[in-house]
């Protein structure tokens, strides 16, 4: 883990440059450009709100904010995985020509999507104000679940970046996995909807603890219990240890497979 921190700090400028490059490529020749970072979660939120609050009659006060409070961190997580999974293979030519630390590529994918996440907080705050939902002081707690989410995301991106080097079907499988994971996470619903005897099933989902921190802070104006905070960081560091351990073990072989 010390090596990860040291390498990240040593190559921080390269990671930042690659992250900006990825953002520029993503929005190249786009009329709205970086505004899509703001519009994408907003449009998705509007569709989900229409479907679940109007058509399916979900009875939840300010359902749009209820969804948005966890949809934005989920979008950061899912997009980071999607871009990072192809980060090593997509930079194969560079890896073959230049001796460069491989970890910078999945980390750059996470950083670029972190920029999108931070930008998305702006329209989220505006929607909260426009809908006259209470703007809770607990917003200042958001860096805590964000840190846990970033650590967990890094671990997952390292794992999938390695897996995609050896098995190119991983990118397709990941999209299916993310869809299943989305509906298994309390984004569109609250766990209170389910009988108490079945809620333990959802607690097997490591994302539930960090998403709970975002929803409690933004929507409910509460802070999570210490057990929930501890669980989010335990899941995060376990994921990072496993993901980076696998990445570190196989990174010298990437040049033969990309």
Task: Describe this protein's structure.
72% of the residues lie in helices and 0% in strands. It has 258 residues and is mainly α. The protein has one domain (2-256). The longest helix is centred in the middle third of the chain and has 27 residues, at 104-130.
Question: How would you summarize the topology of this molecule?
Answer:
Elements: H1 2-10, H2 12-26, H3 36-55, H4 63-85, H5 87-90, H6 92-97, H7 104-130, H8 143-166, H9 170-184, H10 199-202, H11 207-220, H12 226-250
Helix pairs in contact: 2-7, 3-4, 3-7, 4-7, 4-8, 4-9, 4-11, 7-8, 8-11, 8-12, 11-12
Give a concise summary.
By secondary structure, this protein is an all-alpha fold. It has helices at 2-10, 12-26, 36-55, 63-85, 87-90, 92-97, 104-130, 143-166, 170-184, 199-202, 207-220, 226-250.
pLDDT average, as an integer?
A: 87
Structural class: mainly alpha
**Approximate strand percentage:** under 5%
Oligomer: single chain
Span of the ends, CA to CA: 26 Å
Please indicate the count of domains: 1
Outline type: globular
Number of helices: 12
Tell me the radius of gyration: 19 Å
Q: How many strand elements?
A: 0
């Amino acid at each position: 883990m010390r090596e990860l921190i040291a390498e990240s700090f040593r190559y921080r400028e390269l990671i930042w440059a690659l992250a900006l490059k990825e953002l520029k490529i993503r929005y190249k020749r786009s009329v709205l450009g970086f505004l899509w970072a703001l519009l994408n979660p907003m449009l998705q939120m509007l569709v989900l709100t229409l479907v679940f609050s109007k058509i399916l009659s979900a009875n939840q006060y300010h359902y749009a904010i209820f969804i948005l409070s966890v949809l934005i961190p989920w979008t950061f997580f899912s997009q980071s995985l999607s871009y990072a999974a192809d980060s090593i293979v997509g930079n194969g030519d560079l890896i073959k020509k230049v001796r460069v630390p491989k970890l910078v590529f999945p980390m750059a994918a996470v950083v670029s999507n972190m920029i999108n996440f931070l930008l998305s907080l702006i329209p989220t705050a505006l929607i909260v104000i426009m809908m006259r939902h209470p703007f809770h002081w607990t917003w200042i707690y958001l860096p805590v679940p964000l840190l846990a989410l970033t650590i967990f995301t890094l671990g997952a991106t390292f794992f999938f970046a390695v897996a995609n080097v050896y098995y190119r079907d991983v990118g397709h499988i990941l999209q299916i996995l993310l869809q299943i994971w989305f509906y298994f996470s309390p984004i569109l619903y609250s766990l209170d909807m389910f009988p108490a005897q079945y809620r333990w099933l959802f607690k097997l989902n490591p994302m539930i603890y960090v998403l709970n921190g975002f929803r409690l802070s933004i929507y409910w104006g509460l802070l999570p219990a210490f057990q929930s905070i501890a669980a989010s960081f335990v899941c995060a560091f376990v994921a990072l240890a496993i993901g980076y351990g696998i990445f570190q073990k196989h990174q010298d072989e990437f040049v033969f497979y990309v």
